[in-house]
Design a protein that fits this description.
The protein is an alpha/beta fold and 325 residues long. The protein has ten helices and 15 strands. Keywords: NADP, Oxidoreductase.
């Protein structure tokens, strides 16, 4: 059968994404044919497009989507045609009207989770889940620092951490983003362009520092983030929207208080199906209870994915963004 998808034939700017007709085979053993109802936009898609995270060319980008199972291949027993499902993991290929997916990388959607909500929250929501519940297990009374607090992961972390009893400090790029973060549970916002965030964190914590920093910005914030940590604190570098962190002397971690540094990824935390299902289930639970609200603040036609990438890289987006087939 034929379908349409965004294809990338060479790494580069948003203009390298082209809308093309592609051939789609019948589902093989262990696969399902999935028709997307919504596709999630994530910063990792930019990394794939530019070649920072290389993918075999040509390819269709995208790691997150929701949709309807249209057919199943041999050996697939947990899913059937008509099931509503979602995912946030490889293989790449979410920027498509229809695609093949390994059945064991899909989770069924409960009735109370809308397709669009799922496509907007699976990658960012399961990221928030592992950050707060596994990488550093946030406890009541903790004060945490989250960079890019008004972004997709940031807004989810603010709400979820607040629910867990934490005090949340968030860095943001504008007054508008500060208001958005505060509306989602962020106790203290820091305008990083005009304020010294290390000094503000020390002021808020009365000189003590925080037990954990969640940093998806990378190069621009990394070294200063280490100075926000209290002794034995954990630096969680889970992205690099401003660029890669330069190599540094690990003795710095010792000099600044025997700090821990980790560079986690959702793919590693959900590599086992049991972990993926548990993560998604906890996410569905907090969203279902209204503890965490998913903000879909931008939608684009899937064929206009290049414009969505331009806006994402220009910091014009907040919350979650969807591409609609």
């Amino acid at each position: 059968m034929k379908t349409n998808a965004i294809r990338i034939h060479q790494p580069g700017g948003p203009e390298v994404m082209v809308w093309e007709e592609v051939d789609l085979a019948a589902p093989g053993a262990g696969q399902v044919l999935l028709r997307h109802t919504a596709v999630g936009l994530n910063y990792i898609d930019v990394y794939h497009r530019t070649g920072l995270y290389p993918a075999p060319l040509p390819f269709t980008p995208g790691l997150e989507g929701a949709g309807i199972v249209e057919a199943v291949g041999d050996g697939v027993t947990e899913l059937k045609a008509g099931d509503r499902v979602a995912y946030a993991n490889p293989p790449l290929g979410a920027y498509s009207v229809s695609r093949l997916m390994p059945a064991d990388r899909l989770v069924k959607l409960p009735d109370h989770i809308h397709d669009r909500t799922a496509a907007a929250m699976m990658l960012q929501g399961m990221t928030a889940q592992y950050l707060l519940r596994r990488t550093y297990r946030v406890q009541p009374g903790d004060t945490i620092l989250i960079h890019a607090a008004a972004g997709g992961v940031g807004l989810l972390v603010c709400q979820w951490a607040k629910h867990l009893g934490a005090t949340v400090i968030g860095t943001v790029g504008s007054e508008e983003k500060a208001a958005l973060a505060k509306a989602h549970g962020c106790d203290h916002t820091i305008l990083y362009k005009s304020e010294d965030f290390v000094a503000r964190v020390k002021e808020i914590t009365k000189g003590e520092g925080v037990p954990v920093v969640y940093d998806s910005v990378g190069k621009d914030t990394f070294l200063n983030s280490l100075d926000c940590l209290r002794p034995l604190g954990m630096m969680v570098l889970f992205g690099q929207s401003s660029g890669k962190v330069e190599p540094f002397d690990t003795g710095l971690l010792g000099a600044k208080g025997s700090l821990f540094l980790t560079r986690p990824s959702l793919m590693a935390y959900t590599a086992k199906r049991s972990d993926m299902v548990a993560s998604a289930s906890e996410l569905f639970e907090v969203v279902g209870k209204g503890v965490v609200k998913v903000e879909i603040n931008q939608t684009y036609s899937l064929k206009d994915a290049a414009q969505a990438h331009r806006d994402l890289e220009a910091r014009k987006t907040t919350g979650s963004t969807l591409l609609l087939p």
